[in-house]
Amino acid sequence: MNLAVLGTGYVGLVTGAVFADLGNDVVCVDNVAAKVTALRAGSMPIYEPGLQEMVGRNVADGRLRFTTDLAAAVRHAQVIFIAVGTPPKDDGETDLSQVEAVAAEIGRTMDRYKVVVNKSTVPVGTGELVREVIAQHQPRPIEFDVVSNPEFLREGSAIEDTLRPDRIVIGAPTHQVAMTLVELYAPLERPMVITDVPSAEMIKYASNAFLATKISFANAIADICEAAGADVRQVVKGMGLDARIGGAFLQPGLGYGGSCFPKDVDSLIHTAGRLGRDFRLLRTVAEINRERAAHLVETIRTTLDPLHGQTVAILGLAFKPNTDDMREAKSVEVIGLLHAAGARLRAYDPVAMDKARPLLPPAVVFCGSPYEAATGADAVVLVTEWNEFKLLDLARLRGLLRRPTIFDGRNLWEAERMRRLGFEYYSIGRRPVSAVGEDLVPQAPGSGSTRPELGDSLVSRTGSAHRRPATMTKTPLTTQPALTDVHR
Ligand code: NAD
């Protein structure tokens, strides 16, 4: 089938490459000429495992081309995918200007019947808007249909997700139009859900909102675990094995970031409001997420007290592993807060440093390895859980640090292992541990310095109270002062 993909970003480029790989004739369009020139030269604008090889193979075989000429691509195609950006406005509403611009251009240039497919994430009702914009810009009436085919790929595993999606959602005005898309996706042999257009648009937002809710729920549980002396990793494991719940996305940490969840959550809250509904649950999900970076930084501040002048090594800048995408990356928030508190910052990320540089304070020193970042630092903060960090030589890292302190924003490491390796180790929803074989318990607000002294612990690894720092009052285990209370 002849296809056009409008917008050659994360979604458009991967979609174009995969459809070409399935034997279609694909033209990918972008209005950024430099991007198109680079793609023609074989250079990828984004980091995505396996993408370069797939694009190269299909360009070489003549099934995939790149152009800025949208009109020519529209004329070439039977099916036109819209995959342009849908960024948020300040009030959370989705900015549809890129979608409207390409819809107008499709209307102006279409020469015969087309199926126009919205793959961009757009609020319910946008299919109708695209229909109207195309019709308004047609020089003469030509038939067309608008389909919603939301995208569920995850950056970092985009090729795999596009080849083997859990489901393919096709929202079409008629069964016959849906069949065009069914035919296109048939070679993937994946489950397909055929709906009307508004329902397909809602499936995308409802799915992302639900996943974001799971993350914020896990973070709310983590806060309680910190207060109660429970281990959130064990808690979410115990929950996730229940088939009705499932373990995916039940991950406490620094919260969700990236180009989708934050904006899609805000957009759905906005859409609900526009339709006269207050999505209170989702507003709380977003609020919990907004607090995560500040929560971790407060733990760092009270532990290193005073933070001013201390050197902190940041491991991981991308919003998640296996991507260089810095949109809504938690690293920007964490670094901004640490910088404002006067910390000196050294940072390392395996692929995102070029994209991160313009977003971070100029004082941040970018390093060539995690070990270089840690050299002479007073603490390491793990922000993005790259595999590379799981495999670090932690004994070497410890030897390079001025003070062997780690703040793990993603619960990447086992607390017991970190203790054995001689670290003072703080994570999310778990007791902090120290090198001397005992857990650290932070102090209540207003009780003076909360900098834990090694060996000056209240609770042993079995949880029995047996020794207290002088500044702490004796408290039953379940009501001990917690990181959450101290650091909010
Ligand atoms: P992106 O910013 O990486 O890519 C959008 C591309 O569209 C850019 O290259 C831009 O130059 C191009 N563009 C903008 N206006 C254009 C025009 N008039 N003509 C031609 N090209 C134009 O965005 P993305 O991450 O690929 O996201 C695209 C859509 O897919 C968004 O709605 C997003 O919410 C959704 N989505 C993204 C992901 C993801 O993981 N990135 C996953 C699922 C859905």
The CATH class assignment of the largest domain is Alpha Beta
Q: Strands of the largest sheet, in order across it? A: 3-2-1-4-5-6
CATH topology of the largest domain: Rossmann fold
**Total individual domains:** 2
CATH H level of the largest domain: which superfamily? NAD(P)-binding Rossmann-like Domain
Q: What is the number of strand segments?
A: 14
Write the CATH architecture name of the largest domain: 3-Layer(aba) Sandwich
- Biggest pleated-sheet summary: 6 strands, parallel
Percent range of helical residues: 40-55%
Shape: globular
Low-pLDDT segments:
443-488
Structural class: alpha/beta
- Strand content is 5-15%
Tally of alpha and pi helices: 19
> What average pLDDT do the residues reach?
90
Radius of gyration: 25 Å
Quaternary structure: single chain
State the gist of this model.
With 488 residues, the protein is an alpha/beta fold. The chain is 41% helix and 12% strand. It starts with a strand and ends with a helix.
